[in-house]
Specification:
Length: 312
């Protein structure tokens, strides 16, 4: 197939592009490159690339001409960036998704996958249970609200016009080529440099870390989903951030100290005490669940990105 990835030069998008090329598809990427470019030279040489903003309707129309499917991943990412730019965050989400939907109708594309977020569950207090798609969501931030709006916007387009879409709720994706604004690469880089590992808050907050290869596999398996759906992509394993820091220390054999620091006041609204997701629905639809344990995933990142650096 010929497939468009909006935001395809980002962390998830660049890994997805490589996988789709490997599977024999033709790949088109649209990305503004405002947050950098994660596409390597080999991948760039094999794809059609548009350096354009997803908020530009004409650009999205042109990039999607002749395509069979769209992965809509374009977004403003990073808690610090989102907190500083709530208007841009919502514009990219709302206008960008509307443009993608319009391009689907213009170019006869009837299937798309939208990158939502586990952040829409927000601060919902789930003491004993994992987060499932049946639960009421509770988005508080501009980013999470825009994601939820787009889920419902896509539902409306299916109900009214029959556009098939699946919104995937990512749970803390990590892996090769990730931006060091995110916690896993930040901890790795601090360990490699022998610096203190900075953990915000008390470190007891938990997350469900999902390896990038599993995330990409799940997205590809969801391509044939008909109707409208929302689906978690989660590893179903709960790790506190302090233990993540200890694990990365062990993987890198680092002497770095773990330092607990207070979160910036303006970022407090983005902090969640506990988050672990269920991938049961994903398994029911695709027969697949994320398989990579956090320990194995961290070891793989170390071998790919840092082992030579540590031993040089």
């Amino acid at each position: 197939m010929k497939i468009l990835i909006t935001g395809g030069a980002g962390f998830i998008g660049s890994n997805l592009a490589k996988r789709l090329l490997k599977d024999g598809h033709k790949v088109v990427v649209l990305d503004s490159l405002l947050r950098g470019n994660k596409l390597d030279e080999e991948t760039l040489s094999k794809i059609t690339f548009y350096q354009e903003d997803v908020r530009n309707q004409d650009a999205v129309n042109k990039a999607s001409e002749g395509c069979d499917f769209i992965f809509h991943l374009a977004a403003v990412l990073g808690v610090d960036v989102v907190a500083e730019s709530p208007v841009e965050t919502m514009d990219v989400e709302v206008i960008g998704t509307r443009n993608v939907v319009n391009a689907c109708y213009k170019n006869g594309i009837n299937n798309l996958l939208y990158a939502s977020t586990s952040g829409i569950y927000s601060s919902t207090e789930i003491v004993d249970d994992v987060l499932t798609e049946k639960m009421l969501v509770d988005p508080h931030t501009s980013y999470a609200m825009a994601k939820r709006y787009n889920e419902l916007y896509l539902k409306s387009n299916f109900d009214e016009k029959g556009l098939n879409s699946v919104s995937v709720r990512f749970f803390n994706v990590y892996g090769h080529n990730q931006d060091n604004r995110m916690v896993v690469p930040r901890f790795f880089e601090q360990c490699i440099a022998g610096e203190d590992i900075t953990v915000y808050g008390n470190g007891k907050q938990t997350r469900d870390f999902t390896y990038i290869d599993d995330t990409v596999e799940a997205c590809i398996r969801l391509m044939n989903t008909k109707g409208w759906n929302v689906v978690n992509i989660a590893n179903e394993a709960e790790w506190c951030v302090a233990d993540l820091a200890k694990e990365i220390k062990e993987v890198t054999n680092s002497n770095s100290d773990i330092m607990f620091v207070e979160n910036a006041h303006e970022l407090n609204g983005y902090e969640v005490a506990r988050r672990i997701g269920s991938s049961e629905k994903l398994y029911e639809i695709t027969g697949f669940k994320p398989l990579m344990s956090l320990k194995d995933g961290l070891e793989k990142i170390y071998q790919i990105n840092y082992a030579t650096q540590m031993h040089s």
